[in-house]
Specification:
The protein is built from 3 helices and 9 strands. It is of the alpha+beta class. It folds into 2 domains: 38-141, no CATH class; 153-240, Cupredoxins -  blue copper proteins (Immunoglobulin-like). Strands 3-9-8-5-6 form a 5-stranded mixed sheet, with no helix packed on it. Strand 1 (153-160) and strand 2 form a beta hairpin. Helix 1 crosses helix 2 and helix 1 (38-103) crosses helix 3. The longest helix has 66 residues, at 38-103. The protein starts with 37 loop residues before the first helix and ends with a strand.
Length: 241
């Protein structure tokens, strides 16, 4: 009788070699095909090395500039309490938006862009609609109306390049005083340290270099408003008698 093939069982294979099972072969991943067209390679290099590093910061700076300008217009148009309300509302919107984004970490990029764009459009729209009122308030706050009467005396102040005036004390008669600002070197301004004369400003070399002020008897301090000049000693007094 011919020998019959006996199937191997787990019990019968304990003493024999352990059968190994080879894992199935996985399909090879497709590798991206890089373009060999010199024109396409040049365009990609220009986009990644020139356009994005230089143009993107300029776009962001322009957006920040537009945001700040329009927000300042809205705040100026709002007045004392209106500007406080506008600033509070914008702060709350930013906080609520940040909390919403944090609570939805899987928020789609398109949704996030729409939220930011919506806030930006709101700020720009508020700034555009308040151009007139903000300009009027700014003019009223900084405008100075010179007296129309003829001056009773004249004070001539020379700005020296050593960050000094040519004198530490000037004298004038009470009434309308004409102040002449002479360019002795450098860029300087001349203001009066008194809330009554807010908006009065002379400048050299660009001008205006002459202006009239209605002084009552007393002592008034003039100074240069360019940062660091007054601290260096560019201030003086006008004694009116």
């Amino acid at each position: 009788m011919a020998d019959e093939e006996v199937p191997t069982t787990p019990e019968s294979s304990e003493a024999g070699a352990v059968a190994t099972v080879e894992p199935p072969e996985l399909p090879a991943l497709a590798t991206p095909v890089e373009s060999t067209d010199p024109g396409e390679v040049h365009k990609e290099a220009m986009r990644t090395r020139v356009v994005i590093p230089f143009v993107l910061p300029l776009i962001m700076a322009g957006a920040v500039f537009v945001y700040v300008i329009n927000l300042s217009r809205a705040l100026l148009a709002g007045g004392k309490w209106g500007s406080l309300a506008i600033a509070s509302i914008i702060t709350l919107l930013i906080l609520i938006g940040a909390a919403f984004i944090s609570a939805h970490p899987r928020l789609r990029t398109s949704t996030l862009v729409m939220l930011v764009a919506g806030l930006f459009v709101l700020i720009v729209a508020s700034g555009l609609t308040s151009i007139g009122p903000s300009s009027e308030k700014e003019t009223a706050a900084t405008g100075y109306q010179q007296p129309s009467a003829a001056p009773t005396s004249t004070v001539t102040v020379t700005a020296l390049p050593t960050l000094k005036f040519d004198a530490t004390n000037y004298t004038a008669k009470a009434g309308v005083v004409q102040i002449n600002y002479v360019d002795g070197g450098g860029t300087h301004t001349l203001l009066i340290d008194n809330p009554k004369y807010n908006g009065f400003e002379l400048a050299v070399p660009g001008g205006p270099k002459s202006g009239k002020v209605d002084f009552t008897p007393g002592t008034y301090t003039i100074y240069c408003s360019i940062p660091g000049h007054r601290q260096a000693g560019m201030q003086a007094t006008i004694t009116v008698s």
